[in-house]
Amino acid sequence: MLPRYCLFIIVLLIFDEIKCQKSFSKESIIEFSGFLWHKKEQYSKVGPGPNYFGLHKNNVIIDKKGRLHLKVKRHKGAWSCAEISTDSILKEGKYEVSFYCSRAKMPSNLVLGLFLYDKKNAPSYNEVDFELSKWNKAESMNAQYVVYNDTSLCVKRFDLSFLKQETKLTFLINSDSITVSSSWLDDRRLIYKSTFVRPTTFEPRQLRFRMNLWLIDSVTNRLNPFDVIITSFDYTEL
């Protein structure tokens, strides 16, 4: 049998762990654009990447103007990435996100993801993506829309030329189709639009909207400062 003082210490440790979990949970929730969001905080490497997420307090911040910043930051010798997801479970409808980048050129090993994801509907996860990246390759196009089903995925690549210019991204999830489009916010000029047949496997269960900024090569030594600034998010159920 353990001595009483050992039992007392164990109880204190359990209590402290519970307090830490509660504090951690509270700090991991932010409010942006009228929605509650959960910050991803992982102290061991996980996907995508794999990477660490949320190690640095400035991976995800809200500035004084109410804009959301996603950043990849170095923390104690390791790169830490950013990801958030809506607290609310969402459905079919119209999703709108407006964003721009802090620099005109994005490092080729960085990926911005703005996407729908449903962890309860494997293996496709109801995933519909906008991804901004050159995937560490020498090519002109830097953006793509992706729609997943259980056995394959459909990819439409295009070029988003002016990263510092605010872009409006729209996902329209209908009963028989999925349309994704990008346009310049200032004059509403269309950049690229694509309509996909809605996969038969697309059945919302715990559908949430996610945003992340992550490294393809998480062990990179150098990375120029680069922020993605999300100015607004909106969802309208159809």
Describe the structure using short key phrases:
2 domains; Jelly Rolls; mainly beta; disordered N terminus; 1 helix
What is the strand and helix layout of this fold?
Elements: H1 4-27, E1 29-32, E2 35-39, E3 42-46, E4 51-53, E5 60-62, E6 68-71, E7 73-75, E8 78-86, E9 93-101, E10 110-118, E11 128-132, E12 143-148, E13 153-158, E14 167-173, E15 177-184, E16 190-197, E17 207-215, E18 227-237
Parallel strand pairs: 4-8
Antiparallel strand pairs: 1-2, 2-8, 3-4, 5-6, 6-18, 7-8, 8-17, 9-14, 9-18, 10-11, 10-17, 11-12, 12-13, 14-15, 15-16
Structural features, described:
The protein folds into two domains: 1-28; 33-237, Sandwich (Jelly Rolls). Helices cover 10% and strands 48% of the residues. It has one helix and 18 strands. The protein has one helix at residues 4-27, and strands spanning 29-32, 35-39, 42-46, 51-53, 60-62, 68-71, 73-75, 78-86, 93-101, 110-118, 128-132, 143-148, 153-158, 167-173, 177-184, 190-197, 207-215, 227-237. The strands form two sheets. Strands 1, 2, 3, 4, 7, 8, 10, 11, 12, 13 and 17 form an eleven-stranded mixed sheet that branches. A seven-stranded antiparallel sheet has the order 5-6-18-9-14-15-16, with no helix packed on it. The longest helix is centred in the N-terminal third of the chain and has 24 residues, at 4-27. 28% of the residues are buried.
